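Example record for the data management plan.
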Amino acid sequence: MKGLEFVFLAVGSVLGAYLRFKVIESPLLFNTIPVNVLVVNVLGAFILGAFIVMSQQWNLDGKYSLFAAIGFCGSLTTMSGLALESNTFLEHSHYGAFAINLLANVGLSIAALIGGKSLMSAIINN
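Corresponding structural encoding:
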């Protein structure tokens, strides 16, 4: 990795981690279930979907992928946070919350990625 590539990766990572921190520390609840991790995962997937289309359409240099996809989206989203929340639900025998949380994170993240790609395609092609 060259110096400039490292800078792009580092800056994207710092910005994504900062946004995740701000969302995670916010009191976001849905029926007493925290949805902070869901929000960052869905938001990150949406941004990644949009970036994928931009990258393909505009033949963006690899350093932009380091910044946006790996750095920003990679540090914004959190698989470890999802695992921790899921484990907490299981430890407290909240099996319904466990299933809903897991399905919502995976399903909505995939839908958000597709939505980000679709929206960016529509923007670029108009």
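Summary line stored alongside the record: The helical segments are 3-24, 36-58, 62-76, 79-91, 95-124.
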